[in-house]
Amino acid sequence: MVERRSAAVAIQVGVNTGVAGVQTSIEPIEPGVHARELGADLREPIVDMVEAGIHSVEPGVHPRGQGVDARAQVEEGSERSRGQQADRGPDAGVDGVSSVAPGRDRPDHAAGTMKDMRVAIVGATGAVGRTMLQILQERDFPLDELSLLASERTAGTRLRFRSEQHTVGLLTPEALEGVDLALSSCGSAIAQTWVPQAAERGTIVVDNSSAFRMEPWAELVIPEVNPEALERGAKVYAVPNCTIITALMALAPLHRAAGLESVSLSSYQSVSGAGAKGVRELVEQVEKLHGMEDDLAHPDLDALPVGDVFGKTIAYNVLAKIDVFDPESGSTFEEIKVQREAKRLLSLPELDISATCVRVPVPVGHSVSLHATFARPFSVTEAREALEAAEGVQLRDDPANDVYPSPLEAAGIDDTLVGRIRQPEGHDEELLLFACGDNLRKGAALNAVQIAERVSAAR
Ligand SMILES: NC(=O)c1ccc[n+]([C@@H]2O[C@H](COP(=O)([O-])OP(=O)(O)OC[C@H]3O[C@@H](n4cnc5c(N)ncnc54)[C@H](OP(=O)(O)O)[C@@H]3O)[C@@H](O)[C@H]2O)c1
What we know:
With about 450 residues, the chain is an alpha/beta fold.
């Protein structure tokens, strides 16, 4: 994911919030930072697919059976209301939308819950936020009240949940009062401004950003990988980086069987990993280059379309840079996140892991190529057995019949697909494999909701 470090610098004021002494901002939510990164209308079908979610909204119904109608059930407010927000421009102040309070347009039907549970989604109008809303509905999450929050750019948008329209409100400290559980997907700079304070006031927060993943007072959790972290009673849970989730869904069952010693990882990450704006940038560039495909054999580099999100042309290209470069190591921060989060999630501080993270022009679905070394000889057959038994994993490994994972097959489903399992000749403690996962679902929203389900069950 692209984390905008300049925005983080702009709003950090370094005040101690009191949550285990973490130094962070207590300025209430600075609106507008993100708004400048996001454009106006998003009407392209493929962008709508990501913005509106591409998955089932009916519990128990497979997403692929739903098609366009299913997507329409979690819907954007009218184009007019969205256009009005965009027309206000990036510098539009809070005043104009301060009257936008979150709420239902009609009362929720009884959710069938045993305990009162007030839930908020912060960043509800983004790619991950919309997917969280869908997954809460698909899994019939037990909640009694739901608040949807975002910045002034999309406050006022109406989103449907359980057949009722909810109006997205503005993120303010008041909007979070009395909320039992907040699912956050508003980016790390904004999360730092409200998560510690909300946690101090008793809200359990599950955050998708990288802001708290390495904090000792927060728990970094993939329920299938380190469920013990859910037992420690944290106030803040961090969803790991989406690439390491895809990788560890494949590697953790193998680690349990044979002890992981080293990993070399290369990723192929979709543009939706950079949010809805990333998908829009790819779609715009594909359109601009339509009819010019032959010219790409000898491109005029200065004439290629370039956008704000990816820096270089992403259409018909691959970019070996996700997030900014660390000047000291030469790695990108995405690569650094992948490595350090793997060590924490597996409780293997000495794990020998290297990563090269690459953006590819795929709308949804991250892929990883993995070269792993184990503490003992580990056959392909044994590895297949371990993966077949693993929760949240589907084995797609039948080369004779052309069965292997691809991101389009992983998009829209919950399981991580694993295949291409091979042993390098003469290295019986090593395996090569390839895995694909939906970055918006298991890579973010689904993992967050799974954590929320455990937290809710423990109340
Ligand atoms: N996309 C992925 O595959 C993925 C995977 C794992 C983790 N994540 C993480 O999840 C987070 C969200 O990612 P995304 O892809 O959903 O991004 P996105 O599509 O750009 O959505 C961002 C959301 O945050 C809201 N937001 C921005 N500034 C805000 C503010 N000042 N106050 C309140 N809300 C604000 C936006 O609302 P407005 O539109 O109203 O500004 C929008 O709803 C990021 O931290 C990202 O790193 C993403």
